[in-house]
Amino acid sequence: MSGICNFIYNKKYLNQNFKNYLRINISLYKYFFIENPEIIKKKIKNLCYKRKIFGRIYISNEGINIQASVLKKYFQVIKKNISSLHKDLKNIHINIGIDNSRISFNTLRIKVKKKIISDGLNSILLNKNFSNKYLNSKEVNNLLYNKEAVFIDMRNNYEHKIGHFKNAILMNTSIFRIQLKKICNYINKYKKKKIVLYCTGGIRCEKTSLWIQSNGYKNVYQIRGGIIGYINDCIKKKNSINFIGKNFVFDLRLYETITKHILSNCNQCHRKSDYYVNCINNNCNLLFIQCELCSKIYKSFCSKKCYKEFHCR
Prior knowledge:
This protein is of the alpha/beta class. It contains ten helices and 16 strands. It has helices at residues 11-20, 37-51, 75-83, 137-144, 157-162, 176-186, 203-214, 226-237, 292-298, 304-311, and strands at residues 4-8, 23-31, 54-60, 63-71, 95-96, 107-112, 134-135, 149-153, 163-165, 169-170, 194-198, 220-223, 243-248, 255-257, 276-278, 287-289. Strand 13 (243-248) and strand 14 (255-257) form a beta hairpin. The longest helix has 15 residues, at 37-51.
């Protein structure tokens, strides 16, 4: 499949827009059959241009995945418009970001893809007779300290590194499709326990849940709305928050602060730090943790080697 729509807002518009209008970050997904993704793409493109939406949007035959920055004053209208795009999107759950004080997106990218998230699975193999079980924040908190339950982090190791649920188990991989390939063997010893899956917004757990149920696991649960949904539900219902550190996000912010716990260390000096940066040497572009002091010393490069290479061109 093909079809990419890119739109970059000019600097003057961006500055005016972010200074004068409050924006919020939203994310949503839905697995459902789309016969002609190009039709949905066209409708979304028109909506985004009309309502000044920035973000990253993937559409495929298997569904839709949206991460976006929208003007708060248009949120209810946008929600209604999205629900009307397709009958299966009616009353769709939309996560609202925890940190809406920083710019998350400054471009619009809409792409028709083979899948809305790369999983390495043949969708035909997923047994549709199984259904996913969702937990709210209170149920999550009750299970966190239950010896009969185990929490599996379905995110990448670098996401887990700066924030996670207490006692959560990480598979220590950096690619989701590798996690799915290995997960059934990895969690085999927990087969008799309640298995709770979690990720940033829920999309990775949605397919993982069906996959492991198809492989004989019965007591499989996932957190409704992922980490973002959990935090928002805790705040709304005044429940204690048991996620510690920062929630890694795939946009310009790179993280949302949940608690003040610092769980990781600077890659260069090993002092306590949890701020991710990309090496500004484009040939490298390594995502790594760098403290404020090392950022000044290394000028946001991951190493002196990258610094020299960049300045010797």
